[in-house]
Specification:
single chain, alpha+beta, four-stranded antiparallel beta sheet
Length: about 160
């Protein structure tokens, strides 16, 4: 058996073993703080009262679309969405919103106009995969269609 009494403390196993455990906890805690600071949740609303009042207005727009039998058939091919509206008399510009369920930085919005066949086309530079809320409104904001969908999906409808 070796004589460990004459060795310097930093050459022995147990002091290092006892230092490493709390050091790992400190490093893990600091890492957790940096992760929490850099990934703040996007779902917190500062003015919840105004947001709550806006929900009633949103429901009115959805009811207007239902009352006028407005619907949209959407076809996805790759990163392109082709939107065909039904129940709309005049083909004015529409606003397309794509809200990602967890990552606000991936949210998309585009003003679209009808092509020669009456369809609206949206082409994205980024991949459109995952769970999204698809929302369509006319330029005058008189009605709204919205639905949660998992993309990619070849065909889906908004009613």
């Amino acid at each position: 058996m070796k004589n460990n009494i004459n060795k310097a403390w930093f050459k022995q196993f147990w002091p290092w073993f006892l230092i490493i455990l709390p050091l790992c906890a400190v490093i893990g805690g600091i890492s957790t703080v940096f992760i929490a600071i850099n990934n703040k949740p996007d779902m917190v609303v500062d003015d919840y009262y105004q947001k709550g009042k806006a929900i009633n207005h949103d429901l009115t727009l959805i009811k207007n679309a239902r009352a006028n039998n407005i619907s949209a058939a959407i076809t996805q091919t790759g990163n392109e969405l082709i939107i065909s509206l039904k129940g709309v008399q005049e083909k004015s510009s529409i606003q397309l919103f794509l809200y990602h369920s967890t990552q606000a930085e991936r949210d998309l919005s585009q003003l679209l106009t009808a092509d020669g066949s009456g369809n609206y086309r949206y082409q994205s530079e980024q991949s459109i995969t995952g769970k999204w809320q698809v929302r369509i409104e006319p330029f005058d904001k008189s009605w709204r269609l919205q639905k949660w969908v998992s993309l990619p999906a070849e065909n889906f409808t908004l009613e």
